Structure formats: structure tokens, C-alpha cells
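SAMPLE LOG
Freezer: B-3
Tube label: C17
Construct: single chain, 212 aa
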Amino acid sequence: MIRALLTDGDKSIESQWQTPFENSNPELKMPMLMAGLQSGQLSQVAEQMQSNPIAQVLSKLGVQDAMQSVEGRTNLTKVNTTQVFLSTSSVRLNLSIFFLAFSDAKTEVEDRIMQLEAWSLPVSLSSDSTLQNVVNDSNSTLEGLFSGVIPPFVSLTTHGKTYKPFIIESVSAPIVAPIDEKGNRLSLAVNISLMSRTAWDSKDIYSLYGGN
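STRUCTURE (predicted):
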């Protein structure tokens, strides 16, 4: 267990939504034509071509009136802008913590940042190739193919709330800081990013806040 002073932090909850009909609008399929109709430019061009035989035919067919009727209008509706749920990302925590040595800089600062950094990395990675690990696997299991051990899951308790299971995504700490005679840092401001192992639903939020 590691104790630290939490100086700053935020929690990020994000869901992804999409408008499935967004790319089917005529404005995207025929941008120049739709822009000309909506702005009235096509109607103005038709008026300037009254002596043209083609313009006279269009006028008789009611095309010119139709173009004038859509000036300043759009085919955007509430239906084709309906948002559809796609997914939810893992909950993310961005924290700033502070370690300060009162009597022993090694145990109060160095050992704690060492543990945080160790938790953010795989427990072990093989030095051999995957093929060599498979050949050396005497138990004929899949351990040779999956020779590494992933980083551990952690929990965080602050302000009466416990976040678990979480993964340490990154740890950032300065290597230059006030030190004691043995080179141990006396104080250290650390930035740490964590994310939940899975996406959360509303039940996880109620559980976090102690609700039903």
C-alpha cells in the first residue's frame, strides 16, 4: 500500500455517440448544387437567362419556381441528426500526488515512487523470442506463447471513495529534486494517470458513491 498527499486530480467519463445519417445528407453528396439552391444563386442565374430557350423550358416546367422555393431552407431534420450510442471508454483518473520525507527519504519517497513505477510496467517480459519460448515450453501449454506477465491491477482510495480495479497508464516524476546525503530525493511531485480495467455503467457510479 502506498500513501501520498493528493494535491490535484480529475475524473474523466466519456461515451461515444454518432449520427448514422450524417453522411447521407444531400449537402454532402452534392455540396455545390445544394449550396446553390439554398443560397438562391441558381435561381438568380435562371432569371438572368430568361431569353435562353433552355431557361424558357425550365420556367414552363416550374423548375425555376421550385428553385426559388428552397432558398434559405435545409433538409436537416431531427430524424437525420439522431445520435446513436456506440461505446463507453474506460474511466480515467489524472492525479497529482506529493511525497515528502520527514525522517527517511528512502522509505518515504524513493521506495514509494519505485513501487508506483513497478506497478505501471509488466511484471516480467521474456528475453527470448516467442518461437524459442514455445520450443522451451516443456509443459506443452500456451505459457511459451504468452511468456510475459501483464502489469497488476490497482485500487485507489481517496475522499472515502475507492476506485477499482484500475490500471496505471503512466507515471511522471522529476529525476532532479532536493536530495539527502545518500542521493535520495527529499520531496517529489508525481503525475499519475489511471484508467479502469473495463468500461463502467451506472451501477459502478452508484457503488462508488455508496448508493444502491
